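Hey,
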Amino acid sequence: MDRRVVITGIGVISPIGNNIEDFLKNIIDCKNGIDEITLIDTSSYKTKLAAEVKDFEPKEFGIEGHKKKDRFVQFAIAAAKQAQKNSGYIIDDENRYKTGVVVGSGIGGLSTIQDEHKKFIEKGPRKISSHFIPKAIVNMAAGHVSIELGSRGVCTSNVTACATGTDSIGYAFRLVKNGYQDAVFAGGCEASICDLGILGFEAMSATSFSTDKNRASIPFDKERSGFVMGEGSAIMLLESLESALKRNANIICEVVGFGQTSDAYHITAPNPDGEGAMHSMKFAIEESGASIDDIDYVNAHGTSTPLNDVSETLAIKKLFGEHSKNIAVSSTKSMTGHMLGAAGAIEASICALALNKGFIPSTINYAVKDEECDLDYVTEGTRFEAIEYALSNSLGFGGHNSSLLFKKYTK
């Protein structure tokens, strides 16, 4: 059974907006969500900047007992509730077991792990919270979303580092396409801006040590030096076209392809030949039945690290050949930072909105051309033009390469 799959709802908690209206406006306005870290004291750290979620109040989203839920879970619940609300999708006895949840996180409750370990060291074993494990483990985001929404279909979580959000949406796409579920709430969440998270990436020299928020996350720029950590969540409702039409839903766009590969090369570095990323894009396009010449826009993984941006550029050039000169490419991590396990989901959401509203988002703060990164990175600001196909890439530690292809919805 091959069914058409559409997106009918999106919810976001992000460094540039905690609802879809603010988020969309800020993407179009090229808002920078990066600033000095406030969640922890970084006075003795090299890393000074991050893209934090601002003004997040769990109670405003009806999240009860929030102190028993890690921040990454709170973000997921808030985003999922938004997605359900703006989709108009009602879960009842008729569809409860055909409505699923696929929500992952790259790291999970790292701050909870850190805090509980500190209590153990300072106060002894009897001070460990009974909520420690349920707060920390990755699958609890999916579990809590299912409980909050009342869905009883598939409930699972992917953990593929920075490809988590993309893989979650891709798995949901296949569940609906192949008839196992009629609708799935899918996406990613992350909240790792804590001492362990910052210092762990800092020890790898993976993060930018810049103190200039406008020159920290600068994908494809020759002076890029590392990624800027972000946090938040994006959840979208994927639904069969039949289900969406039956309830006269607002259709944002269509999901038409999903590709996955492994570099089988290195635990953190991408394969410099770009073959893995090239094939994940190729497989997503092949599943859709589209031609490579149909692709208008690529939302690149674009981490602002020296290795990623060159290898991803090469992957795009290898796949698209001459057409690569005609494709608009951008990295919205320049605005949101790198939201790790939520990155693919937030970027999928941007692609869906871009198709629906007719724009191509920018790579902000780009200044210095890199001879090895020579594509059209949309550095002049948002372009307002209709596009038909948008491809979103996520490339995670461990060699995970994932690509989603979205299409402007037509009957």
